[in-house]
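Hi everyone,

Forwarding the result from last night's run.
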Amino acid sequence: MSTLLHVDSSVRGTNNPNPDHDSISKNIARRFIDTWQENRPEDEYIYRDVGVNPPAFITQEWIGAVFTPVENRTPAQQETLALSDTLIAEVSAADVLVISSPMYNYGMPAQLKAWFDQIVRIGKTFDFDLERGDFPLQPLLSGKTLIIVTSSGEFGFEKGGIREESGHLVPHLRTLSKYLGVDTIYEISAEYQEFGDERHRVSVANAKERAERLASELSLSGQALSSRNEVTDA
């Protein structure tokens, strides 16, 4: 049995009175999850909708608590870090992570960044040692697979695309993913939302089909639970 952690970050719901307002990224991710659970119903499933229920932003008090030795933390400091501890435990338990995110102003939603800020924490998900020279930070978690699901209003944010320099969502997710213990990454994307034309419809349909196919391949082959050595663009 494995554990699947699913994090959505769009502020939109999956089903709205006006279907044009439905979250694209959430619905694509849902296709992946539904397929996975059909194939592996015994797997544990953890869900966070940080778009609708955003984590608190970190504060000066939060930073102070993090850098206070555990044995010296006050009850108030322990409470300040309670959410962070819970979110880190969820990531630590997961074998497979699915993170869905729309592109807001060419990057990730503030709610998703707040989730990462609660998790990327010294002594929990990374350690720090100046003896490593110019690279003192070292992740403490490893062996996980990440599926990144994104939606964007424009297009061409991929490497070599016409908006490559403006696309900060996926590169940021990739950079931060190492502190979640991610070794293998798959990407699913839908584009052209602002155009609302046939390109958009095809892009969404292809993304949903890819989500279903990828979930089947990974869940049935066990590849997501055994690929631990390299980051993959599939």
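Residues 226-234 have pLDDT under 50 and may be disordered.

Cheers,
N.
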